[in-house]
Amino acid sequence: MNKFEKNVQSKNNDVIDSGLAFVVGFASLTVIYIIAQVFGIVAG
């Protein structure tokens, strides 16, 4: 066992962190899409 396995900084589950990152990324892209659609409707 190396020194990094003995001194772990974060004991969180990686699945939870990955899921949270996916949700945040998806939500931000959704917001960008909605803003673009609003601009398209207003300009049209």
From TrEMBL:
Keyword Transmembrane listed? The answer is yes
Q: Kindly state which keywords UniProt assigns to this record, in alphabetical order.
A: Membrane, Transmembrane, Transmembrane helix
Segments passing through the bilayer: 20-43
**Protein name per Swiss-Prot or TrEMBL:** YqzM family protein
Species, as recorded: Phocicoccus schoeneichii
